[in-house]
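Narrative progress, year one. The postdoctoral researcher (J.K.) led the effort to move from monomer predictions toward full complexes, under supervision of the PI. The following entry was the first complex the group processed end to end, covering 655 residues in total.
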Amino acid sequence: MRFLPATALPRWLERLRGDGATVWAPVDEDGVVVLRPWEGQPIASRYVNPLNSLKDVLLPRTETILEFEGRPTDLAVREPAPPQSQVVFGTRPCDAAAMELNDRVFLEGTFVDEGFRRRRETTTVLTVACTVAGPHCFCRAVGGSPTAPRGSDLVLHPVENGYLPEAPTSRGEKALRAASDLVEDVEHPDPREAGRTVAMPLAERIALDGLAARLRDHFEHPCWDAISRRCHSCGLCTFVCPTCYCFAVFDSLRVTRGRRQRGWDSCQFKDFLLMAGGHNPRPTRKHRVRQRFLHKLCYFPEAYGEYQCVGCGRCVAGCPVGLHLPAVVDELGEVLG
Amino acid sequence: MSDIQARLREIARRLLTEGHVRVFIGFGPGFEANRPVPFFAADPDAADRLLLDEFCAAGLARYVLEEVREGPVGLVARGCDGLGLERLLADHRVAREQLYVVGVSCRGVVDPDRACAAAGEEVRAARVNGETVTLITPTAERSFPRSACLLDKCLRCQDPTPRIADVLLGEAIPPGERDLAHVDAVERMPSDERYRFWARQFERCLRCLACRQVCPACNCVSCSLDRPEWLERGTGLAEQFMFHFTRAYHVAGRCVACGECERACPAGIPLGLLNDKFMKDLRDLFGVAAPHRPGDVEPLGKFCPDDPEGWHEGGEGT
């Protein structure tokens, strides 16, 4: 089995950067661990998940779709330069799996989202498997595991003084080739097994069996009034969520030059569905909160056969009023049985 | 606090039974025992689920904005909630007769994550006594300094008791002087360094608007920050500065220092520090109290006919 010493990590990432790729890595910034373009700064080691997920890299907070210049009758339009290749180090298995869920939305079926596809195809995901679960983690309850390879190009299993790399894709194998002289051969039992024994108390409290059908049958259940009542209608849960992908398209204009951009939008904002003419199909918190959880727990499973949640725990850690997926599943379980 | 909790339930039950209020807002059990959540008791029996302990973190004032639409509202209020309610009253967003305020004195709220880090295991219960906090875990009961256990927003709070309670449970604790010394460090930074400091903070912003949505001073019916003619929707550094400075300016002189914005921020942006800087300037320039006492003069929110700079109707130029 191959072994990459921890001390070789910066040299390897430096080589990947030298190949012209933007390398992202988790760094500690004023006590908050954030995925940032890496330029040699110390890489954070003690974190469960960075503030921003892979979504920030593959579906940026804002990106330019096209640029335009001129007058309405004489307008030059040009596409932005294609995305540069990117390498993301230190993402967790849950975030990598989340990108496969987003793949299904953006890449499956008749319409392929070109912006997402191009970024996806030029991004290499170097996941670091988890050896502990945070208090908010519940990946196992939604089909994941602390060592699962889904969505990763390379999984680095942490062991003493280094990592055991596993390359599920040729992109991952290629990235590892840049470290061929740094990698050693060692004897080690299957590191994926370690994922089975990681304690994850929160996952054991979540029961999702049959929930999608029960939610479909109880669309008008009064419990949604009670559940949503404490929601402040901010977009925190949706923006920290690696699987929430909604965006808005908007223009910014400077006299005769402008850019059409797309950026994150949230179904929890009260004007999310507001239409020209003033009609709002989801005017209350009840409508919006119900939409968020039905999307994750009912509509997505009906369309794709799996829940739209990877158990990363960011909503659990972040929601200022405890209105997160495990809490809502728990409250639904009490009223719907 | 269990005696106070029992009296709180009794009062809420009576208010709901007699029809004085349509709903009573307090805290109820959360998904995790040490994270109670805002709870809305709509019938007398639900009053028995109200709880009040050292882990009740969320501010409650903001909820009355929605809840009073359907009728009078009762709620439990600590010092920060009380100032938040005063803010809404001073802004004429709710009327005093729509509220029944059950006041309690608060010595600080325990942050379960911080407490867990201090105690080394999950904290089941806590007692806040003066300068120390006793944390009770499954295996031990030990005391720690406040700074190792409490929410940031509580460490600088000097308003333990609400000023506008209809009934106060327990003893009143007099307000103190807010310590704004932590602003000095930012003021002393050379301007380049200070710019980099705030740029780094604001770059993390996801623009989830949690800071605005939990804020009792951000109670406008519609917000300029939602309007693209005031703020473009992008998240480049220019827009991030625009967002955060606009937010800070709009609450400057009105912020009651409840600290909910900073508690809610997922990106760890020190919004309290920014608010405190404005608070300090307003105190030093205009001699107003820090935090602002709603109802007192608002240096930035009110025009005086004898203002030495006069009033420029329509402004000058374009």
